[in-house]
Design a protein that fits this description.
The complex is a heterodimer.
Chain A (H helix, E strand, L loop, with lengths): L1 E5 L3 H13 L3 E5 L5 H8 L3 E5 L2 E2 L8 E2 L2 H11 L6 E5 L3 H11 L11 E3 L4 H22 L3 E5 L7 E4 H5 L4 E2 L4 E8 L4 E7 L16 E9 L3 E3 L4 E8 L11 E5 L6 E9 L3 E3 L3 E7 L7 E7 L3 E10 L4 E12 L2 H5 L1
Parallel strand pairs in A: 1-2, 1-3, 3-6, 6-7, 14-22
Antiparallel strand pairs in A: 4-5, 8-9, 8-12, 9-10, 11-12, 13-15, 13-16, 15-20, 17-19, 17-21, 18-20, 21-22
Helix pairs in contact in A: 2-3
Chain B lengths: L10 E3 L8 H6 L2 H4 L7 E9 L2 E9 L3 E9 L3 H20 L18 H19 L2 H9 L5 E6 L16 H4 L1 E6 L6 H6 L13 E6 L5 H7 L9 E6 L3 H8 L4 E5 L2 E2 L4 E2 L11 E2 H6 L9 E5 L6 E4 L2 E4 H7 L4 E5 L5 H17 L5 H9 L9 H10 L2 E4 L16
Parallel strand pairs in B: 2-5, 5-6, 7-8, 7-9, 9-13, 13-16
Antiparallel strand pairs in B: 2-3, 3-4, 10-11, 11-12, 14-15, 16-17
Helix pairs in contact in B: 3-4, 12-13
The chains are: A alpha+beta, B alpha/beta.
């Protein structure tokens, strides 16, 4: 695997390089923001290890940009390049969280890209590299040289359905493929084309571009304090971009049925301390838009600290699960009237 | 989202443990290959508040909501505790003296009175079903197709769902039934136990820890050691060891299998030779020992009552849920007393099915093992074994489980 290490601490960079080289990886070290994006593209890197605080140029040691690593990734992102990335920083994750979220990097199913706070454990670092390598290896095996087929009459256009990914409800866009042979019609109603994926997988091929699993941020609103007997609104939406004002976010991966352009979730609320007209609502999540807004009208019937549990269910999974906490106070009229 | 000026600092996102292994499952075909999109799926939400039980059902693929159905029962906590006690005592007597650890597993004679015991088990399941489930929900359930996937989302782990009997069959036998646990939202300690984090795990080199305890008979011991005979994985056997050693070892395991006795008061897995609670695995030792399991690992606690609930200081707790809280993605256990020969048979069927499943899906293997023998000609032993297998329950999310293909897809 080709690993690009963007790190200005030369001692640490050397350690990382030695560790990765010992594991059979090819490592390209880089120490500053300037020229990094172009070097990554030229290097055809599979994985980036990115320090966040970096000098702008190699001659500006000591004049670091606190978001130098982010700038490089943003530059790549603007060119449509989205590579697996491991962050390493002396800064706390929370400080960089919004900027990292905005990059929409691969999360490997964990809700956020791998982030290591310096000083970090080398074993943990190598474990993450190993895991990412395993995932990328599978993707290569499944993508390279495999036949693809198009289902006649599909409205997912333009697209090609990779046989293996079709089974997993994963659809790859047409531009990722190139034609090499003529089409033959199958007896099963499918037209199987002699198409192959490029032998070299584009570096920015990622599940984010796959229709089969879409990612959305949760946006939730409910008052932190409410009055007994007074209706309060619980609003839930799944958004493509995280809300800037949201202090806590959760990134959900929502399975999308084959050939469908939207997922349907049921939103179920469990809140024994509240009277509700409805406890379950349906939510449509289009593959290219924010979801419907689910709004529950809740009347508190019990005083004190109360918990509202929300579960988001697809046909197959509980894709989201969170708890809203609130304090239910006495009715204002009763207290002061 | 309107009113975007407010923040959501009163929202706590509790991680669904299964989420952490989603990518693994996605890559290895887990979510797509188990079942198909036409399979019926029901989500059953259950909660209780004061004396009211509340049930809501969401059905896919028809996308319909049924309920909420409510049932008010006076002193429901007492009733449930009473029911649990009754069920536990009944099952204990059912397992009876004929089912010692050294009993052979096939064609064994059925003792006098056993048939009526089985009938009584059905009757008990039916009684509990009618007592707890509102009539309109019973009517709805009767319309569900056999083999429907039924996921129960509930914190109230005390209902012996699998044992409920609708008058024709046990619920757990009729449907592909599983439990989707919820975490106690008010428990700050739980939130600390399960932070949203990135934790690397090896995907393809599976480690198995097999914990054996309880002075098992020679024949049982020999049979249970064969569970992993033909499986390509590293297996560590811990036979009657110190609790600390067990707790240390299971943290490195992708699959933890217990072959031991499960004992009540307090609920415990007998990992040692002695049955003394202080040297065995109790709920408290799992909860309070500073450890975490590998994300999404599988725990198969093949012991009596390993998924049964126990009322402790006003809350119902189970060993299964404690494992789940420590990071397990799937927990298999029992809600009653299981004869040793039935237990060992089921485990053998499970690992055989797992080995032969190209996707290494634990749920597929579980249902295959649970229904193993259902196509055999009926005889009293087959019938009894089949019924007792209904006492096994499974926690987790079938389509987001760690692939247990034991090295067949090693990269």
């Amino acid at each position: 695997m080709r690993v690009f290490v963007l790190e200005d601490d030369e001692i640490l960079a050397r350690i990382v390089q030695d560790d990765l080289s010992a594991g059979g990886h090819e490592v390209t070290p880089w120490v500053c923001v300037e020229g990094a994006a172009q070097a990554i593209i030229s290097d055809r890197s599979d994985l980036l290890v990115v320090d966040i605080v970096l000098p702008l140029t190699s001659e500006h040691r000591g004049l670091e940009a606190t978001d130098g690593g982010i700038r490089v990734l943003k530059e790549l992102s603007d060119q449509g390049i989205n590579l697996p990335t491991i962050f390493a920083s002396v800064l706390d994750y929370q400080i960089n969280r919004t900027k990292i979220d905005d990059l929409k990097l691969r999360t490997f199913g964990r809700g956020a890209p791998p982030y290591l706070r310096k000083p970090y454990d080398r074993g943990v670092f190598l474990g993450i590299v190993e895991e990412i390598e395993a995932v990328l290896a599978i993707e290569r095996q499944e993508v390279c040289g495999s036949r693809v087929s198009i289902t006649e009459g599909t409205d997912v256009e333009p697209s090609l359905v990779h046989e293996d990914f079709q089974k997993e409800n994963r659809v790859y866009p047409r531009e990722r493929c190139r034609k090499s042979e003529s089409a033959t019609a199958g007896a099963d109603g499918h037209v199987t084309l002699g198409l192959r994926f490029p032998q070299e997988v584009p570096v920015n091929l990622s599940p984010r571009e796959v229709v089969g699993a879409i990612e959305r941020y949760t946006a939730v609103e409910f008052p932190r304090k409410c009055r007994i007997g007074v209706v309060a609104s619980l609003k839930i939406q799944l958004t493509i971009k995280s809300r800037l004002d949201s202090s806590i976010k959760q990134l959900l991966e929502i399975p999308l049925k084959e050939m469908e352009k939207e997922a349907t979730l049921s939103v179920h609320v469990t809140a024994p301390g509240f009277r509700m007209d409805t406890r379950t609502m349906w939510m449509r999540v289009p593959f290219d838009q924010d979801s419907d807004l689910a709004e529950f009208h809740m009347t508190p019937i019990a005083m004190g600290r109360q918990f509202i549990e929300v579960e988001l269910m697809s046909q197959w999974d509980r894709v989201g699960y969170f708890v809203v906490e609130t304090e239910v106070l006495a009715d204002a009229k009763q207290r002061f009237g | 989202m309107p009113n975007s000026g407010s923040d959501d600092s009163n929202v706590t996102f509790i991680e669904d443990p299964a989420e952490r292994v989603f990518l693994d499952a996605l890559q290895t075909g887990g979510p797509g290959k188990i079942g198909c999109s036409d399979d019926a799926q029901k989500w059953l939400f259950f909660s209780h508040f004061e004396d009211t039980l509340e049930f809501t059902v969401v059905g896919f693929p028809e996308e319909k909501v049924f309920g909420p159905y409510e049932k008010s029962i006076r002193a429901v906590d007492e009733l449930i505790a009473d029911l649990l006690k009754t069920v536990a005592e009944f099952l204990k007597s059912l397992s009876g003296s004929n089912y010692g650890p050294s009993a052979s597993n096939t064609n064994r004679p059925v003792g006098p009175g056993e048939k009526s015991q089985l009938e009584n088990l059905k009757a008990l399941g039916e009684r509990v079903y009618k007592r707890l489930i509102p009539p309109n929900l019973q009517s709805e359930i009767s319309k569900w197709k056999d083999s429907t996937w039924v996921g129960v989302s509930s914190r109230n782990d005390f209902i012996p769902w699998e044992l409920l009997h609708d008058g024709e069959r046990f619920i757990g036998e009729r449907f592909r039934f599983y439990r989707l646990p919820k975490l106690p939202p008010h428990d700050e300690a739980i939130r600390e136990i399960r932070p949203i984090s990135y934790s690397p795990s090896k995907l393809y080199d599976k480690n198995i820890v097999h914990v054996i305890g309880g002075n098992l008979g020679v024949e049982t011991l020999e049979r249970c050691k064969k569970h992993f005979g033909n499986i390509s994985a590293s297996v560590t056997e811990l036979e009657e060891r110190y609790l600390e050693e067990v707790l240390e070892a299971i943290q490195q395991a992708h699959l933890i299998h217990f072959t031991c006795h499960g004992l009540p008061n307090p609920l415990r897995l007998q990992v040692a030779k002695s049955a003394d609670p202080t040297v065995n695995l109790i709920i408290g030792s799992i909860r309070h020992y500073d450890m975490s399991l590998i994300d999404g690992c599988v725990v198969f606690a093949n012991a009596c009552n390993s998924a049964g609930a126990e009322p402790v200081l006003g809350e119902f707790r189970s060993l299964g849920l404690e494992f789940y809280l420590k990071g397990a993605g799937v927990v298999i256990g029992t809600i009653g007393t299981i004869p040793a020969d039935v237990a060992v048979d089921l485990a053998n069927s499970f690992y055989e099915a797992l080995k032969n499943d190209p996707d290494g899906n634990v749920f597929s293997a579980f249902y295959a093992a649970k229904n193993n023998g259902s196509d055999q000609p009926a005889n009293k032993w087959v019938d009894k074994s089949r019924l007792l297998r209904q006492l096994y329950s499974i926690y987790g999310n079938p389509r987001r489980v760690m692939c247990m293909n034991f090295g067949s897809r090693k990269v």
